[in-house]
Amino acid sequence: ATDGHRLSLATAAAADLGNLKLDEGVILPRKAVAELRRILDGDQNVDLAFGRHHASIRKRDLSMLFQYVDGEFHEYERVIPRGEMHRATVKKDHFLRALQRMSLVSADRTHGAKIDLRPGELRLSANHPDVGEAVETLEVEYQGAEIAIGFNAVYLLDVFRVLEAADVEIELKDGLSQGAIREAGNPNFLAIVMPMRI
Q1: 109 vs 52, 99, 102, CA distance in Å?
Q2: What span, in angstroms and rounded, lies between the C-alpha atoms of 47 and 25?
Q3: What are phi and psi of 187, to 5 degrees?
Q4: What are the strands of the beta sheet with 147-152, ordered from one edge?
Q5: What is the pTM of this model?
Q6: Under 8 Å CB-to-CB from 3, ≥6 apart: which residues?
Q7: I need a labelling partner for 128 at 20 to 30 A (CA). Which of 47, 74, 103, 145 fits?
C-alpha cells in the first residue's frame, strides 16, 4: 500500500494457492481493506478467491465480495532503495516512545522530526517556533557514517505502532533518500518513508 509519501510491503505464505495466478496483481479498494482488517483479526484461516473483476473472502459463516479498483498501481518497486545502505538497529519500544514525545513538539502541518545518526547513537529532535524544541538520544547498533535526515513523525509512528519485533532496523542511504524500516529477522515486512527537509 502507498500514498506517495510512504509505502508498506508485506508478504505471507499461503497454505494452498491452487491454480491462482496474480502475476499483474489486483488493486483492492481502501474501504474493503479496512473491512478485511477487521474481519481478519485473529489466527483463524480464511479462504480468498480472486476472479476477473472481483475477489471474495470466506471465514467460517461470513462471506464478503468486493470489486477491484480499475487502474494501474504505482510502480512501487522503483521506490525501494537499492545498493549500499547504512543500517541501524534500534529497540522498537524506546524509539516509539521517543517518537511520541517528539510528535508533541512537531505538531504543526508538517510534523517534522530529525534523525541524526552516528556510531552507537541516534539523536531524535523536533522544533516548533511556538512550542519549543525537544531532543532525545538513544543507543543504537550502528557503525556507519554520520547521517542527518528529516521525516514526518506521524508516518514513522504509523510504522512503529504495527511492528511486533523488539528490534527494528532503519536503513538509510544518505540524508536525502527514502528510508527503509524492517523488523529484525523478519524478511516479510518492509516500510518505506520518504524524507523531508527540516
Answers
A1: 42, 16, 14
A2: 18
A3: -80, 0
A4: 132-139, 121-128, 112-118, 147-152
A5: 0.83
A6: none
A7: 145
* Amino acid at site 160: F
H or E element in which residue 5 lies: none
Residues 6+ apart with CB under 8 A from 135: 123, 124, 125
Report yes or no: 80 and 39 within 8 Å, Cβ to Cβ.
no
Planar angle of CA 52, 56, 57, nearest 5 degrees: 150
Could you read off the pLDDT of 147-194 as tens digits, one per residue?
A: 999 999 999 999 999 999 999 999 999 999 999 999 999 999 999 999
**Integer Cα distance of 59 and 186 in angstroms:** 27
Q: What is the pLDDT of residues 128-147, one digit of tens each?
A: 888 889 999 999 999 999 99
**Percentage helix, strand, coil for the chain under 3-state DSSP, each rounded to 5:** 20, 40, 45
